[in-house]
Write a structure and sequence with these properties.
The complex is a heterodimer.
Chain A: E1 17-26, E2 29-39, E3 43-47, H1 54-62, E4 69-74, H2 83-89, E5 90-93, H3 105-115, H4 120-133, H5 149-161, E6 167-171, H6 179-194, E7 199-204, H7 207-213, E8 216-221, E9 224-230, H8 231-237, E10 240-245, H9 250-258, E11 263-266, E12 269-273, H10 279-290, E13 294-300, H11 304-313
Parallel strand pairs in A: 3-7, 3-8, 5-6, 6-7
Antiparallel strand pairs in A: 1-2, 1-4, 8-9, 10-12, 10-13, 11-12
Helix pairs in contact in A: 3-4, 3-5, 4-5, 9-10
Chain B: H1 4-7, H2 25-40, H3 48-73, H4 84-89, H5 91-114, H6 118-122, H7 128-161, H8 165-171, H9 173-198, H10 204-228, H11 244-253, H12 272-295
Helix pairs in contact in B: 2-7, 3-5, 3-7, 5-7, 5-9, 5-10, 7-8, 7-9, 7-12, 9-10, 9-11, 9-12, 11-12
The chains are: A alpha/beta, B mainly alpha.
Chain lengths: 321, 299
């Protein structure tokens, strides 16, 4: 790729987006609260319920909104001071409908390519190619107003892709799609990341979407970053050992806590944080010490849903590296 | 037997990265300006969107051709073709400009806001200032076509039907300069008013009505207060009549008294500079309003 002169491209190992203590307020609503995050290469999922601050975060890193505090760097560029250079490098797909209904799909995608700095002939060629890639090759000369929701989402994706960005910010790209359309959209996003080599920040409130295409995840709630890290690390780091006992488990819980383990009582089972394999020895010793009979113990790797719910519930959950 | 090429099919073109030149925000501005002009005239759009703008342009041209043609066909019977200030300063031409503005300005600005396309435009490497100025420039250039082509046609017709075309052009070269200046002023004036008003609505019909309403209400207020009442300083209220402002400046440009039809009703005529200053104030206010409207706001 050849972005505009002077525009840096993320190096092979450099983080794509770095934000430090970003805050943004709309009247009395604090949409972002000291949000700090580091987003690496590949596809990263930005998870959070509606109103968590995902869209605001995306608009701030794109330079569409000015933060009240903190700073961000996207491929080394400051969204506040270098918004134009940054936007030449980034493709953005908003959450809401944003397409002109009386334009032909090819005309609009070509136009967006030109606005991003492509010469007209190149923009025409790339508009055709991009619409072909998103599956609208045959429909590209139809007016957007007559498209289904799924086709409109594809046009939105195509206009974000036409200028060959280094980074794509996709805000709820599967919104309003039926299961088949959602499946195809996620396949497209996976292709963009793995075959086209474009870094993607995928904002969604759908865990399954993020789990399917993202290698890393950032979880937001109430404008705060609750958790971030690679999915594999997070799932390992938040693994647990489930212990069921004959007797009430309070004594065993206290004995484990005295040994320094984080233990939580969930109905009749104890959930012991799996920090290392020695936890099994510690459980055995504590059971002997408290004369507690163990019915079973098993290791449980948490799903993204568990991680998400933990992140939503407890703002103090430590942030994974 | 099929040839190998006959069996070939493209399964996947593959994604191609782009290594070529990327142009800056200035290019984006010109792209947007051109797209705005095409949109205003219904180019690359359904046929129904072409009808009204082209009808208005053709009406202005036809008015000139009919006037000149009928006079030349029957010099004794038909009225003389209008003079340049008569043509540019006439209420009919002002109405035509107002209708064109009320038709095109909302079409340039309202759908972008209503369909939230602004989000995508502002996510491209152009600024909000680029967007607002490109839209304004598109409208002004289209209006310039309307304010320049018919009077230039009148000029050419007069030259062709005169005893010596070269002599006519030589003798009326100053008129040509005035025509261009007057055309620029009128195009900018109507363009600024149109964009400033249309920028406040996301509905085309509301914006169209508002533009016509602003011109009518100010014209009514200027007429009633400035010319109908007799209190001290009442004549200054003539300046409220937005549609009359450019007409009066045009007359001044051509060396005629600035007050047109209403001169007999206005005992205390204002100096020409007052109309020029009022015209500039309206344009500066309009541009500031337009830019202010797009400087902040929802994206």
């Amino acid at each position: 790729m050849n972005p505009p002169a002077g525009t840096p491209v993320p190096s092979a190992s450099a983080p794509v987006i770095v934000a430090s203590r970003l805050s943004k307020r709309f009247g009395r609503v604090r949409a972002l609260r000291d949000a700090s995050l580091t987003i690496g290469q590949g596809c990263t999922g930005l998870l959070g319920a509606n109103g968590a601050g995902k869209s605001t975060l995306i608009k701030v890193v794109l330079g569409l909104l000015t933060p009240d505090g903190g700073e961000a760097r996207v491929a080394g560029l400051d969204p506040v001071k270098q918004p134009l250079a940054l936007r030449a490098l980034v493709g953005y797909m908003p959450e809401h409908e944003c397409l002109p209904s009386d334009w032909l799909a090819q005309d609009f995608v070509r136009y967006m390519g030109q606005l991003h700095g492509l010469p007209r002939r190149v923009a025409i060629q790339r508009a055709n190619d991009t619409l072909y890639h998103v599956g609208l090759g045959e429909e590209r000369f139809r007016a957007i107003g007559g498209f289904s929701t799924g086709m409109k989402q594809r046009v939105k994706l195509a206009q974000a892709l036409v200028h060959d960005p280094a980074i794509m910010l996709l805000d709820e790209p599967t919104n309003g799609l039926d299961p088949a359309g959602r499946d195809e959209m996620l396949d497209l996003i996976a292709r963009i990341t793995h075959q086209m080599g474009i870094h993607v920040l995928l904002s969604s409130h759908l865990l399954a979407d993020v789990e399917r295409v993202a290698g890393s995840v950032v979880i937001m709630a109430n404008g705060e970053i609750m958790l971030q890290g690679s999915l594999a690390e997070l799932m390992t780091a938040t693994a647990q050992v489930i212990v069921r006992t004959h007797e009430p488990p309070a004594a065993l819980q206290q004995a484990l806590e005295r040994r320094g383990y984080a233990v939580r009582l969930d109905e009749r089972d104890l959930q012991v944080a799996f920090e290392n394999p020695e936890v099994f020895d510690a459980i055995r010793d504590a059971a002997v010490e408290t004369a507690t009979g163990i019915v079973y113990l098993k290791r449980r790797v948490r799903t993204l849903e568990d991680i998400y719910l933990a992140g939503q519930d407890s703002p103090s959950v430590p942030v994974a590296s | 037997m099929n040839s190998p090429a006959g069996d070939a099919r493209i399964i996947d073109r593959g994604y191609q990265h782009y290594d070529g030149v990327r142009l800056g925000p200035g290019h984006g501005f010109w792209v947007m300006l051109r797209a705005g002009m095409e949109r205003g005239m219904g180019i690359r759009r359904p046929f129904r969107t072409k009808i009204l703008p082209w009808l208005l342009v053709l009406t202005a041209i036809a008015a000139v051709l009919i006037s000149v043609g009928s006079h030349e066909a029957n010099p004794a019977g038909a009225a003389s073709p209008p003079t340049y200030p008569q043509f540019l300063g006439s209420r009919a031409f002002g109405l035509l400009l107002a209708l064109f503005t009320a038709l095109v300005a909302p079409d340039l600005l309202c759908p972008d806001r209503r369909e939230r396309v602004l989000t995508l435009y502002f996510a491209a490497p152009i600024t909000r200032l680029h967007y607002a100025l490109a839209r304004l420039a598109s409208l002004c250039l289209l209006l310039l076509g309307l304010t320049l082509i018919p009077p230039l046609l009148l000029f050419v017709s007069n030259a062709l039907f005169s005893d010596s075309a070269v002599g006519y052009v030589r003798d009326h070269l100053h008129d040509l300069g005035h025509l261009v200046v007057a055309g620029l002023l009128m195009a900018l004036f109507y363009g600024v008013i149109g964009c400033a008003v249309a920028g406040f609505s996301d509905r085309r019909a509301v914006a169209t009505g508002s533009i016509i309403g602003v011109l009518l209400v100010t014209g009514f207020a200027g007429g009633v207060i400035g010319e109908g009442l007799t209190f001290s300083g009442h004549q200054w209220f003539v300046l409220l009549d937005l549609q009359e402002l450019p007409a009066r400046v045009v007359r001044w440009l051509f060396g005629l008294p600035p007050i047109a039809d209403s001169q007999a009703l206005t005992p205390g005529t204002l100096d020409a500079w007052a109309y020029l200053v009022a015209l500039v104030v309206v344009m500066v206010t309009g541009i500031a309003t337009l830019l202010g409207r797009y400087r902040q706001g929802e994206i």
